[in-house]
Design a protein that fits this description.
Layout: H1 14-23, H2 28-35, H3 49-61, E1 70-74, E2 92-97, H4 100-110, H5 121-131, H6 136-146, E3 147-152, E4 171-177, H7 180-183, H8 187-198, E5 201-213, E6 217-219, E7 225-227, H9 233-242, E8 245-254, E9 268-276
Parallel strand pairs: 1-2, 1-4, 2-3, 4-5
Antiparallel strand pairs: 5-9, 6-7, 8-9
The structure holds S-adenosylmethionine.
S-adenosylmethionine is lined by residues 23, 26, 75-77, 79, 82, 97-99, 102, 153-156, 177-179, 182-183.
Amino acid sequence: FSPAPRSTPAGPGPGLAAMAACYQRFDPAAYLQYNYTPPRADFDRKDSIVPWKLACLHRAFTEGDMSGELLVDIGSGPTLYQVLSGCEVFNEVVLTDFLEANRKELRRWLQGDETCSLDWTPYLQHVCKLEGASAWTEKAAKLRQAITDILPIDVHRPQPLDPSVLPPAGADCLVSCFCLESVSPDLAAFTRALGHIGKLLRPGGHLLLIGALGESFYFGGPGVKIPVVPLGEAEVCTSLKETGYTLIRLEVYTLPQDMRVGVDDVTGVFFAKAKKD
Ligand SMILES: C[S@@+](CC[C@H](N)C(=O)[O-])C[C@H]1O[C@@H](n2cnc3c(N)ncnc32)[C@H](O)[C@@H]1O
């Protein structure tokens, strides 16, 4: 992976360098514990945040307007929930993250390693229930077969991925969850990053973007406070428009009080389905 220059001609600005430094202390196991266990991942509750996200993704992938071969997930972190529905539509799935620690966590699951930091079985079971189809073990096998690569990425570079790793036309679909706003020092950097990842998508391809609303920080581990660009719905819509996407749908979830567990100050979550012009 040979890094292309970052978008600021003078090199990474102090904002970007500080963000990158923050992430060196990111702890995948703690992050999974904070965000991907109950109450945030309570499959018996319709108002829990993870089932809401899985329902949005399920709906987006089963509407019949998305097709192709290759789905790329941008800033996967140590999580897999975001590609559980997509692997039924796209034969090839590429996961990406800035940190080797997160890529290593994903590789552990891929290789069936028992020491994974989170058991994804309830997630697989829940999505199978939404689909009313295959057994969860079949979905796990399908996903393991579909994931062809786990690559390094930097969304602040005009070419976030090594250009040789994707077909010249680009991916057919991009998914990105809680990445751009939590790695950008300000709204301008968020919008630039949205433009950078758009170059990885073919014209007419879809972007499914999930992110935090009104969030100014989150904990990426004990004492690892990471700044976030606080976004509103209007900013998300404007940034998408400015970077060459047509918005198909924006859905918003407001966090119930008991989902505010002290690991961040998020007030809501958005789900955007958009198409590259
Ligand atoms: C809040 S986590 C989101 C993880 C996962 N997608 C999820 O839904 O929970 C943000 C992720 O962005 C990654 N990241 C940090 N800097 C990045 C950069 N410059 N480019 C791409 N990803 C980056 C981090 O390693 C981390 O995995």
